[in-house]
Write a sequence for this structure.
C-alpha cells in the first residue's frame, strides 16, 4: 500500500484579497478596533455587519476566540457561579472550560451513535438538575434534530446557546446553525471554516443580551462604533453595571476574515465534495460505522468521523498506528490520555466526574479525521483505500 504524503493540518493559503487587506491595515497602523477616523467604520465593525447579514441575525460581536465567545455568552445570559449548565458529554475542552470560566457547573448529557446530544437523556437531566441553560456543542459538525430540541427547551424554559465552531454555514431544515436559540458562538481558529489563526463571533437577536456582551468584551464607552450592535438606549444602564473583561478582535484579523466570508459557501461545497467521497467509500467497508446524516441536515464536511464498534482498546491503538504508518492522521477519542485536540470527559479533572456509559461506549471506537481543502479528490480516494486496508488487516489480526 502506497503511503499518503499529505497532511490533514495543512490549510489553504490565505487568499490574496485577504493578504492585501491585512497589509492595508498594517500600513495604516490602526490595528485596534476603536482606532478609527471620524465617521469611519473599523474593519472589525464591517466584519460584524457582514457576518450578522450572513447569519440573518440582528447583532454580531467579533471577539478573541470561539471559547471566549462561549464564556461571554454565558455571562451575558446571566449564568451565575454554581449554576448547572447542560452540555454534550462528547465535545472539546473549550466547551466545559467556558462553563467553568464563569464558575458554573457542567452537567454532561449522553450522545447517540450519530454523535449528537441524546434528547431523552437531556430531558431527564433538565428535570433532575433544574438547569435553565444548555450550551449545545454541534461537535464535529453534527446537528441533532434542532426543531425537536428547540421545542423541548422552550417547553422547559431552558435557554439555548449554540457552539457552532464546527457548523458555520450548516443548516437544519434550511435554517442556519446558530439561529435556534439565544445566541450562536463561532470560531475562526485556523482549523475552522474561515481562518484568522484565532478569533470568535457571537450572534443574537436579543438587544439586552448583546449589549451586555459588547460591554463585557471591552468596548469601554465606544459601543456606538460597532457595526451590528443594539441601539444606543439599550446600553444606558447596562454600560454601568457590566464589568469589562477585554477580549476584542483586532482589525488585522477582521481584514483577513472578510474576504474569506465572501467565499464561505463555495468552500462548503468543496468540503462536502471531499467528505461525501470519503464517506461513500468508508460506508462500503465491513466493520466501519458512520453517523447517519438526516435529510434535514445540511452539513459542512470539514472533518469525518467513523467507528469500529467491534474494536477493543488494543485493536483501536493498532488501527491508529497502522494508519499513521501509511500517512493517514486519525484521532481516536477512546484513549485514556488526551492527545492534541482529542479529549474525553474523563480528562476534565476540573469538573465533577459523571457516569456516561453510553457516551463512553461510543467514544471507545470513534475515530476522526480533518478534511482540509488542500486535499484533492484523488487524495480522498487514496486515504479511503488506506483506511479500508488497515481496517481489513486490523480485523484479521484481531480475529487471529
Amino acid at each position: 500500500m502506497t503511503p499518503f504524503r499529505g497532511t490533514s493540518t495543512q490549510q489553504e493559503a490565505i487568499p490574496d484579497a485577504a493578504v492585501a487587506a491585512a497589509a492595508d491595515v498594517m500600513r495604516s497602523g490602526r490595528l485596534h478596533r476603536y482606532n478609527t477616523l471620524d465617521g469611519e467604520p473599523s474593519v472589525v465593525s464591517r466584519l460584524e455587519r457582514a457576518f450578522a447579514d450572513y447569519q440573518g441575525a440582528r447583532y454580531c460581536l467579533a471577539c478573541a476566540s470561539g471559547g471566549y465567545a462561549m464564556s461571554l455568552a454565558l455571562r451575558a445570559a446571566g449564568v451565575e457561579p454554581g449554576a448547572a449548565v447542560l452540555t454534550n458529554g462528547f465535545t472539546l475542552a473549550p466547551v466545559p472550560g467556558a462553563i467553568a470560566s464563569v464558575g458554573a457547573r457542567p452537567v454532561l448529557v449522553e450522545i447517540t451513535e450519530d454523535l449528537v446530544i441524546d434528547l431523552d437523556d437531556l430531558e431527564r437531566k433538565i428535570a433532575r438538575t433544574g438547569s435553565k441553560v444548555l450550551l449545545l456543542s454541534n461537535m464535529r459538525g453534527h446537528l441533532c434534530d434542532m426543531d425537536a430540541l428547540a421545542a423541548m427547551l422552550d417547553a422547559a424554559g431552558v435557554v439555548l446557546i449554540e457552539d457552532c465552531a464546527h457548523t458555520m454555514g450548516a443548516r437544519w431544515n434550511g435554517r442556519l446553525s446558530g439561529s435556534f436559540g439565544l445566541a450562536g458562538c463561532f470560531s475562526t481558529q485556523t482549523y475552522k471554516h474561515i481562518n484568522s489563526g484565532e478569533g470568535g463571533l457571537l450572534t443574537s437577536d436579543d438587544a439586552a443580551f448583546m449589549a451586555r456582551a459588547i460591554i463585557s468584551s471591552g468596548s469601554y464607552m465606544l459601543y456606538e462604533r460597532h457595526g451590528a450592535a443594539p441601539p444606543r438606549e439599550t446600553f444606558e444602564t447596562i454600560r454601568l453595571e457590566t464589568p469589562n473583561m477585554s477580549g476584542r478582535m483586532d482589525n488585522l484579523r477582521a481584514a483577513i476574515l472578510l474576504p474569506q466570508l465572501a467565499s464561505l459557501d463555495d468552500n462548503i461545497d468543496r468540503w462536502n465534495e471531499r467528505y461525501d467521497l470519503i464517506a461513500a467509500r468508508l460506508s462500503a467497508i465491513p466493520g466501519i460505522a458512520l453517523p447517519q446524516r438526516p435529510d434535514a441536515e445540511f452539513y459542512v464536511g470539514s472533518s469525518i468521523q467513523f467507528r469500529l464498534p467491534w474494536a477493543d482498546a488494543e485493536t483501536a491503538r493498532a488501527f491508529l498506528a497502522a494508519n499513521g504508518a501509511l500517512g493517514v492522521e486519525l484521532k481516536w477519542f477512546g484513549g485514556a490520555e488526551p492527545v492534541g485536540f482529542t479529549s474525553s470527559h474523563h480528562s476534565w479533572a476540573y469538573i465533577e466526574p459523571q457516569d456516561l456509559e453510553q457516551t463512553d461506549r461510543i467514544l471507545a471506537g470513534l475515530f476522526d479525521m480533518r478534511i482540509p481543502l488542500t486535499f484533492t479528490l484523488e487524495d480522498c480516494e487514496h486515504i479511503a483505500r488506506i483506511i479500508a486496508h488497515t481496517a481489513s488487516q486490523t480485523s484479521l489480526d484481531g480475529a487471529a
Summary: The chain has two domains: 16-262, 264-399. The radius of gyration is 22 Å. The chain is about 40% helix and 15% strand. The CA atoms of residues 87 and 103 lie 15 Å apart.
